[in-house]
Amino acid sequence: MAVIKVLVGSKNPVKINAARQIFTQYFPDSDIQCEGLDAPSGVASQPLGEADTLQGAQNRVQYLVDDHTADYYCAMEGGAHQFAYGPATFAFVVISNGQHESIGRSANLPLPQRIYDALLAGEELGHVMDRLFNTDNIKQKGGAIGLLTNHLATRESAYTQALLLAMAPFNHPELYA
């Protein structure tokens, strides 16, 4: 059985589980060794805007590529933005095999304006949600997505879909060359 080593740029179990799930689906006949490592994002703890959110995920992956050895490196960075239609939270995902990089993005979760305003004031989304919903460390559980969708979707499900789609260039490299 082939061994595929995957490094995730975070020790958050939600992110590690999402990566493990996707690589297991893509490589069902392989032993997936998925490990989370602290990797600096180089952006604010709560990125605001698409550019900073993407940069955070790319920085995490680059740190892993530069300092570690694996078959795949991935990172997920959650952010928020005030779009023309209202505030939302989302995540960028980056997957690399050390030579090629693929970028994916989750769907948007609309945010109440008062929650986004708290982010503008310097709070992290997980802390705001914990306070509003009387939860503890929701960012390592279902996340804001779980709370706002009555647990029909979760932070992990948002990451898994984005990672699943971001793997396309690795499945068909001849089409993406």
TrEMBL record:
GO terms for molecular function: hydrolase activity. The keyword Manganese applies. Pfam families: NTPase_I-T. Residues 9-170 form the Non-canonical purine NTP phosphatase/PRRC1 domain. Binds 1 divalent metal cation per subunit; can use either Mg(2+) or Mn(2+). InterPro entries: ITPase-like_fam, Non_canon_purine_NTPase, NTPase/PRRC1, YjjX_NTPase. It is an enzyme of class 3 (hydrolase). Its EC number is 3.6.1.73. Transmembrane segments: none annotated. Gene3D superfamilies: 3.90.950.10. Its cofactor is Mn(2+); Mg(2+). Belongs to the YjjX NTPase family. NCBIfam families: inosine/xanthosine triphosphatase (TIGR00258), PRK05074.1 (NF003459). Phosphatase that hydrolyzes non-canonical purine nucleotides such as XTP and ITP to their respective diphosphate derivatives. Probably excludes non-canonical purines from DNA/RNA precursor pool, thus preventing their incorporation into DNA/RNA and avoiding chromosomal lesions. Homodimer. This is Inosine/xanthosine triphosphatase. It comes from Pseudoalteromonas viridis. The lineage of its organism: Bacteria, Pseudomonadati, Pseudomonadota, Gammaproteobacteria, Alteromonadales. The gene is yjjX.
